[in-house]
Amino acid sequence: MDSFVNRLKRFIFFKGRLNLSLRLFSLLFLSLLSLPINAGLSLVLVHGYLSDGSAWRPIGIVNTLQQAGWTDAGHLFPNSQIPNLAVPSPTEHYVYTVTLPSEAPIPMQAQWLDFYLRNVQKRHPNNSLILVGHSAGGVVARLVMVASGIPIKGLVTIATPHLGTDKAEWGSLLSNSPFSWVAPFFGLDTINRSRGLYRDLMREHPSNLLFWLNRQPHPNAFYVSIVRVGFDEWVPSYSQDLNDVPALHGFATTITTVGTHSLHPTDGHLLVSLLEREKCRMKSEKCQ
Prior knowledge:
- Helices cover 42% and strands 17% of the residues.
- The chain has 288 residues and is of the alpha/beta class.
- Helix 2 (61-67) packs parallel to helix 11 (265-282) and helix 5 (166-175) packs antiparallel against helix 8 (195-201).
- The longest helix has 33 residues, at 2-34.
């Protein structure tokens, strides 16, 4: 009898512990369900060489995104505070422009972009980050994706020299020639300030940044390259294609457009189309 009573006591004790564990598990499960899921997207537009974040606005790209339901969350530049949003977006889709030191070497620009993205991430912790980079800004964005550890959902590049450009080699030659001594008198001192950037954007070879970057493991994300054909005087078309990057071969979507190297209003409509597909995919809806 005593042994039976003891076993009964142990069973009751065990059952009480089990019920408590089940209750705790239920509370934990319910609390996890109450956590916010990915609410939306934070889009960051990254400019190219000799430009700044304002380049996306007068051309109408930010306005096109706004018409498609994106909230203009403001412009970020060195030593600035993230602007306060007067009206939060009901869709939780935000677009930011940033200003980087565009004449600086790619790694230095990437440090600035890393700083901006971490602040945007803190502001919208439940949003996924998507980067759009024009020209050299696409290389900066891709370096951040590879080296920073920040979770980034996707990258769209526009006329970006992923495999380098001979124009950077010409710039490097000029910056290391006697012409560099008189360049400031002709308003061309950017040639001297951009020496490091030119080295980073030369056509890839085993001793430069692009060769290293193009062979690093890239995070699981969607990659789209918008390639200019016909009239880009700065970056050859083959260099703009992410599918020609060894680490991304066969994993990127390539879209060709006719135009010059600069940003165009049609880029805004193309971005809206690409982003709508991504929003549909996030909702597990069928996209046409």
